[in-house]
Amino acid sequence: MHLLPFAWLVLGCVFCFCQAAPTNDDDFVSYSEFQVWKITTRSNEENKLVLQMIRHYGFEAWKDSDAISAPIGVLIPPPFLEEMKLKLAATNISYEVEISDLQTAINDENASVNVSAITTKMAHKMDWTSYHRLDDIYGYLKYLADTYPKLVRLIDIGTSYEDRPLYVVRISNSSSPDTQPAVWIDLGIHAREWISPAVATYILHQLVEEPTNVGLLLNVDWYIMPIMNPDGYEYTHMKNRLWRKTRSKTSSKKCRGVDANRNFGYQWGGAGSSRDPCAIKFRGANAFSEPETLATSNFITEKSKQIKETRLIGRNQSASIIVTRWSCPLKISFYQHRESCQ
């Protein structure tokens, strides 16, 4: 599986100064002349100073750390480039420019879909050398269900805010599916993390189309939701590459969307979330305000007798990691309740 470098940088983002929102929500958002800097500090004082600068200007930190000498990645908008250079020079803090023009990096990140492969394999357009649009991904799910009906079932669990279907793929070679322990995997909860749905489809490919992996299907069902946030995912392809939230309307006329990962019911509104509709970690007006999170919770609740007994969960969410649970004591199994570990 070939992974494209810019997507990994996007995954490292931990908080945002904004979504670079256009005046009109239908406008294309350009990140021309935006730069990504890697700032290296040598003491606690310097580290605190840089983090204070980031908070003061409302910049987006792509990598932040409280550890001394750990680089801090920052997205700098064009109007602040010179000012930040002067401030860092005045405090003798070193930095280097990792991306000199973010829009150029965005334009170069996604390879063209392999046309020859599509010509010789008309059943679907999926490959793992480029990032695909939602239609291609959903087309691949339908292909798997049609081609391997005894193994794969495509389940429509609801619709998104913009009326796109929410799909879960069940993989089971049991004569009595839905009765044995199950693995739940959900990905694509943050729109701009394109690597996440790519990982989901690659897992599906390995489980369904690679005979050497048949052992992974013994005595276990798999439920895989490749894209929990299809509206946001499409928006990143069409309008704003760095969009992260859902696309629902909020109480703010100028800010849309909810961080779906902070919209589940367990400890909703706790640390790490925001009540500000314009914040990137906006929790929503209430728990399960988003149709995407509500549909996901309802499905897992329905399958709780299966899923709660399973010890494995995989989600590629932020940074180069697999996240097993969110803010949960280690002694609590993820599968006790889906919404309890975001």
Number of domains: 2
By CATH reckoning, the class of the largest domain would read Alpha Beta
Determine the mean pLDDT: 84
Query: How would a crystallographer describe the biggest sheet?
Result: 4 strands, antiparallel
Shape: elongated
CATH homologous group name of the largest domain = Zn peptidases
Determine Rg (CA atoms, Å).
Answer: 21 Å
**What is the count of helical runs?**
10
The count of strands amounts to 8
- If strands are numbered along the chain, what order do they take across the biggest sheet? 2-3-1-4
Your description of this structure?
The chain is of the alpha+beta class and 342 residues long. The chain has two domains: 5-109, 2-Layer Sandwich (Alpha-Beta Plaits); 115-234 and 287-340, Zn peptidases (Aminopeptidase, 3-Layer(aba) Sandwich), CATH 3.40.630.10. 29% of the residues lie in helices and 13% in strands. It contains ten helices and eight strands. A hairpin with a 5-residue loop joins strand 5 (152-159) and strand 6 (165-171). Mean pLDDT is 84; it is low at 11-23, 309-318 and 327-342. Belongs to the peptidase M14 family. This is Zinc carboxypeptidase. Residues 130-342 form the Peptidase M14 domain. GO terms for molecular function: metallocarboxypeptidase activity; zinc ion binding.
Summarize the structure.
This protein is α+β, with helices and mostly antiparallel strands and 342 residues long.
